[in-house]
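Annotated sample (chain length 104).
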Amino acid sequence: MTNVFVKDDSGFDITFTVDDSSGEDVSLASISSVILKMKKIGALSTTIFGVCTVTSATIGQCTYSVQAGDFDTIGNYATELELNYAGNRIVTAKLADIYITGDL
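Output written by the structure step:
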């Protein structure tokens, strides 16, 4: 599944739910930070590296507020959340790709 957004749109939130391999919600209660990473497929570096806000820890939900300039380049982006726990434990949650399209 790919999520589609329009180039240069900003000022809205995207909510993510983190699930484990069996589809169960992952608790974010002991998370010190959640980082959204997006990289245009084929690019060498991360395009977006932004902090998410945990909105419902018990069901694994967090939100990223899209900023001006985040969606400024059309293309398909690999997307993941970096879950940072106390004690330097890091878990990466792969997400559905995001596609940035032009407007009409």
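Annotation: The domain at 2-101 is CATH 2.60.40.3350 (Immunoglobulin-like).
Annotation: The two ends are 22 Å apart (CA to CA).
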